[in-house]
Design the sequence.
């Protein structure tokens, strides 16, 4: 009798169902060893050599993420999202041409504009949701990587992953997708043709705002993925075992959190679209969103937990509204169980593509009516 395959929700909930062989504990222990015994012939039959690249707790968390992303070549965990993202670029060679999303995580964009050029990389920014512009920017045989963030932070534009993969592969390039704001619950880029998917695992994968981590997953264990693994191993951008344990704990409830957060984000987007003091809501779940049709095709079971609003009255009104919230927390980051609000233009500074009247909202698991009421009073308080 063929055994019925388990749903990723079930596998994640039980962290792949692994039982500690010594104690029979249902929660795997934290392995903190930094070194391992050699065999008599100096080999390492256990497969573990040294704590920097080899740690069982990290391996277990990587296995859960690789399962969620359907990553045939596996997953690698890093000490931060920036460490994961920059490892991909550092695996390229000097002179390589890269096409990247114009709207993306601001710190990575700043790194590409400064440090990446010192590595000899040639970076070109385009609107990757504009396939014609993307295709025009790619140089066959010269472009080695397309980096697309979708949904893009904080405007939530949608890049067609399958179409971008075709453009990349036709030019002999790789496609890497930052899927932090989708999560594998809603989008699995590797199944759509991407070569690498990146997550700032600090965010929704962990979900509790108590771990800084990053992750990469790959579709093929090829030469390029081997270089990425070497960068991680030799430069030491690893995740510690305690952080890996907390990340794995967070991924156990990822499906539950994402379902609640996405449903609440959709409800807020719909209600705020009718608010008299909101000029525009940016959320791919809304039919009027320019990328809605593509999002509906490549996102399953919801449109994510992030949205932005543009406040009537401009920058001053937006900043004032953010100052008046009570339930929302004014803080950087996203994806946690607590809802956050931030005026992004102030954070990103000069050169930011973020409109000055925009507030970014990360939707947590609080009661959605409470969240709306908090935004409503914050918006109305300055209008008598």
Sequence:
């Amino acid at each position: 009798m063929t055994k019925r395959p388990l749903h990723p929700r079930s596998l994640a909930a039980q962290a792949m169902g692994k039982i500690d062989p010594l104690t029979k504990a249902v929660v795997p222990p934290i392995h903190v060893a930094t070194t391992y015994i050699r065999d008599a012939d100096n080999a390492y039959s256990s497969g573990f050599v040294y704590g920097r690249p080899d740690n069982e707790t990290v391996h277990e968390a990587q296995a859960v993420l690789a399962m969620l992303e359907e990553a045939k070549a596996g997953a690698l965990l890093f000490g931060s999202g920036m460490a994961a993202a920059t490892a991909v670029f550092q695996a390229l060679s000097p002179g390589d041409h890269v096409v990247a999303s114009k709207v993306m995580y601001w710190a990575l964009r700043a790194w590409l504009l400064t440090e990446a050029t010192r590595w000899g990389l040639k970076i070109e920014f385009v609107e990757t949701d504009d396939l014609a512009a993307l295709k025009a920017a790619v140089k066959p045989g010269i472009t080695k990587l397309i980096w697309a963030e979708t949904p893009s932070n904080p405007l939530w534009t949608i890049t067609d992953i399958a179409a971008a993969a075709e453009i990349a592969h036709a030019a002999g390039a790789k496609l890497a997708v930052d899927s932090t704001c989708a999560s594998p619950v809603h989008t699995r880029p590797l199944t759509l043709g991407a070569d690498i998917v990146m997550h700032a695992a600090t965010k929704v994968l962990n979900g509790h705002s108590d771990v800084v981590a990053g992750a990469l997953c790959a579709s093929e264990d090829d030469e390029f993925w081997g270089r990425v693994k070497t960068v991680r191993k030799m430069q030491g951008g690893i995740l510690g075992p305690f952080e890996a344990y907390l990340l794995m704990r967070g991924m156990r409830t990822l499906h539950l959190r994402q379902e609640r957060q996405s449903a609440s984000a959709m409800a807020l987007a719909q209600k705020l679209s009718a608010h008299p003091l909101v000029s525009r809501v940016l959320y791919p779940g809304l039919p009027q969103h320019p990328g809605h049709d593509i999002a509906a095709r490549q996102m399953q079971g919801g449109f994510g937990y992030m949205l932005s609003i543009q406040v009537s009255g401009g920058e001053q009104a937006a900043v004032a509204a953010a100052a008046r919230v009570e339930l929302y927390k004014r803080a950087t980051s996203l994806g946690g169980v607590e809802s956050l609000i931030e005026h992004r233009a102030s954070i990103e500074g000069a050169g930011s593509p973020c409109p000055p009247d925009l507030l970014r909202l990360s939707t947590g698991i609080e009661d959605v009516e409470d969240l709306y009421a908090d935004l409503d009073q914050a918006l109305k308080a300055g209008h008598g």
In short: The chain has a mean pLDDT of 95.
